Structure formats: C-alpha cells, structure tokens
Amino acid sequence: EVQLQASGGGLVQAGGSLRLSCVVSGFTFDDYGIGWFRQAPGKEREFVAAIRGNDGHTRYADAVRGRSTISRDKAKTTAYLQMNNLRPQDTAVYYCAVTPRSYNTGSYSRDDIYDYWGQGTLVTVSS
User: Fold this and answer.
1) Which residues contact 37 (CB under 8 A, 6 or more apart)?
2) CB 117 within 8 Å of CB 8
3) Nearest-angstrom CA–CA distance, 8 and 122
4) What are the pLDDT digits (tens) for 43-92?
5) Which residues, 6+ apart, have CB-to-CB distance to 119 below 8 Å?
6) CA 88 distance to own-chain centroid
C-alpha cells in the first residue's frame, strides 16, 4: 500500500521558516516525481513546487520561487519543502503527491499527473 505522510506544518510568524517533509512508503518506483500543492480556505488547490525523479530537476510556482526549495533524500524516501520568508498568504494545507512517470518540467504543476496524495499538513502564518 502506497502511503505519503506529510509533516512539518505549524504556526509561524511572517518572515519565519518551516521545513515540510513527505515520507513515501510502499512505492516501488525508484525515480518518482514529487509535487507539493497547497489549498487555502475557500480557494482551489494550487501547485507549489515539484522535483522530477530521474534528474532532480525542479519547478516552482511564481508565488514561492526564491523563497522555497524542494529536495529529496532517496535513501530516506523523503521529500522536503523548505519555505523561508513566509507570508500570511502562504497559509494553507500543504499536500505532497507522487508520480512514477517522467514529464517535461512544465507538466509537474498539473495535479492530474500524480497518482498518490498525502493527507496534508497545515501551515499557518500570522502577520
């Protein structure tokens, strides 16, 4: 059974940092792509960042580019999303997702390419 366990969310003041983690288990593909998405209250889910499995190429949403870094530790089957200089508009539930297929980097912002999703972790940024 494939499971994604997201953690690391919490309450932080504006300007602070958080590192989200996503532990992937039960996934048999070695080179899987990982994406992070978020959903704020009353809003649609939106893409945040992704890392391609075979070469580690990354993609970021404009809203977080320059403030966030996605990475992965294959040995630990864990992906990370380091978020710095957090803003109140970053408040949302953050979800990680995986896909066993490789795409051009532009496709990783599409949520329909991901096969499995984690349960989400809440990030709240106070002003």
Assistant:
1) 45, 46, 47, 48, 94, 95, 96, 97, 111
2) no
3) 8
4) 999 999 999 988 899 999 999 999 999 999 878 799 999 999 999 999 99
5) 4, 5, 6, 95
6) 18
